[in-house]
Amino acid sequence: MRTQKKESKDCCPKFEPAPWDGKTQEWKNKPFIKGTIPQLFHVPLPGAMKHAMGRMWKEAENASAAPELQDFLAIAYDPSPWKSELYMAVTKDVPGTENTKLTGTFLTKVFDGPYNSVPKWIKEMDKFVASQGKMTKKYYFYYTTCPKCAKKYGHNYVVAFAQVD
Q1: pLDDT digits (tens, 9 = 90+) for 13-53
Q2: How much is the pTM?
Q3: Is 48 contained in some domain?
Q4: Given 13, 14, 61, 88, which is the most exposed site by the fewest CB atoms within 10 A?
């Protein structure tokens, strides 16, 4: 699925929301590497996300497991206000990292706005999921661009993934 187009030498390609908005993703043993970052009340500590994503990307590249840029996907799950789990999609297992596979059905919806809107977006997702006759088991979020690129493109797109039963 092509979702991003490289516009320049910026770090984040321009995100195309259409392939993600109101869609269903079916994953069976989709490979990811997992990392964690500290946060304070669901807000990552300064530099934590950038450092973790850079490290994970280098590990994937060194193992020849990094996806093509247009297939890049990194999702976050917050099991507590103090910690976030990051999952970066890879093409195969990456030695020396925590490899995991995700299986399930995920309903996705694209939002545009500041990160502190996540509680509002979860309420909107709950309505969307209910309209599909489903119940959410877990939420993941795909922050499609870094703050610098979001400012450049004029959009701060975030994709909510509701894992459903």
Answers
A1: 889 999 999 999 999 999 999 999 999 988 888 889 889 99
A2: 0.89
A3: yes
A4: 61
